[in-house]
Amino acid sequence: MITKNINGLSFELKQDFDFTFLSEYGNVFSVFDKQDSGYLCFGVQNNNKKLFIKMAGAETIRSNVGTDVAITRLKSTVLIYEDLRHPILIEMIEHKEIEKGYLTVFEWFEGECMGKQYNSFDKFLTLPLDKKLSNYQDILLFHSHVNKCGYIALDFYDGSIMYDFITEQTRICDVWNFTVKNQ
């Protein structure tokens, strides 16, 4: 195991990886390394603009897939994000190859991931019913859009949803498990 430190933030990998590409986007202020997808994600700020970077290629501790599979999966999401553009879907602004990997760059959303592995899951459960129903309506609205675009969500899960507890806005942040119908 390797412990990496970027801008004072530590995380562990199975093997070392070069993250110098991140400096092109600004200073890392957050690391999201608890995914089992093989992705490693970063919150980055530059010139008063925050970005969310999702990358594949580094061997993460919790990954249940190899780096080649993670890279292929991340690349496959690019067209889906472009096809499914919607106010509830986090906006992808760039994607590209990096040395030994691939990355996608998104507009930052101030929400928290609803995945069970995060503290926000329990926080969400304590919300009043009307707030939960509003979140659910947003998710249904997005899935209606997905259907109209000819896609279907094969494995939509809590880790695909973000919620901002202050503005009460919902965003979908992961579409790797969406596919074109009748494929």
Automatic annotation (TrEMBL):
Listed name of the protein: Serine/threonine protein kinase
Organism annotation: Cytobacillus spartinae
